[in-house]
Amino acid sequence: MSTSDNISTIKFGIITDIHFSTTSETAVAITTTADIRGWLENCKKHNVDFLFQLGDLIKGSEEHNQEELRQASSLLKEFSGTIHHVIGNHCLASQKKKLLEALGLQNSYYTFIEKGFRFIVLDGMEVSIQNKPETPEDQQTLEYYLAEPAKHDYCGAVGLRQKTWLKNELHTAERTGDNVIVICHFPFLVNTTDTKHGLLWNHQEIVELLASSNSVKACISGHYHYGGYAIKDKIHFVVLPAFVNRHEHPHFTCGKVELQSNRMMIRNQKDEVVYNLLFLQ
């Protein structure tokens, strides 16, 4: 029997692009903290299984990034359950080793299984100007994309070792019958972002890899502050709006995701349904 036959509903809180700042006006900082605590209380009220923070937790100011990281991570730890963190471009203003320690991560990309779903968390900044390339191939990738004038140097790519790991995870999911949800800070599709924000540098390669597996049902991202959605190769690609811009798009500032064996439902901070997406076979 495949593990997907035993799936029950999973509920998890979700937030992206908090851009926590310690240099904001006092009133802004107080409001930000209160709004995040409101989300945490809502998640606790609805007995979520865990939380997802999709990257750009901090503003990443040159002088204050360590204090931003300390305060933001401490605030989220007021939630007594598990928090899964994703690496965003602003996050790497903090030295990566210290960042991983603060977020309780052993590695910047990882996987876990919850009630028959395999969550695959990618590090879209593995190859970037903020990371030293791990292989000659990654160095070539970095040089290639930096030479492209349309590519932003605050974006990045999935490197060679992570791609190999991802292929293995997808093969394992197919063998065990797990449904896969892919999480990454960066959008994967051009039509779910804009030219200012950009997207994962090697998005086409990664999308082709994901589409090669029937296990992948949805990809959830942040980074593009106004959100987007598209479907490609029977995979739902959801980009959630940024918390930091919540006053510009009150329809979603943070919320919850509910997963069942055949669908994904995303609710906003008011518990209103924003997306109700059937998984395609």
Describe what this molecule looks like in 3D.
The protein is an alpha/beta fold and 281 residues long. The protein has helices spanning 26-45, 65-76, 96-103, 136-146, 160-176, 203-211; strands at 10-15, 50-53, 83-85, 110-114, 117-121, 179-183, 216-221, 228-232, 235-239, 255-260, 263-267, 273-278. The chain has one domain (3-278): 4-Layer Sandwich (Purple Acid Phosphatase, chain A, domain 2). It is built from 6 helices and 12 strands. The strands form 2 sheets. The chain has a 6-stranded mixed beta sheet, covered by helices on one side. A 6-stranded mixed beta sheet has the order 4-5-6-7-9-8, with helices on one face. β2, α2 and β3 form a beta-alpha-beta unit. Residues 1-6 have low confidence and may be disordered.
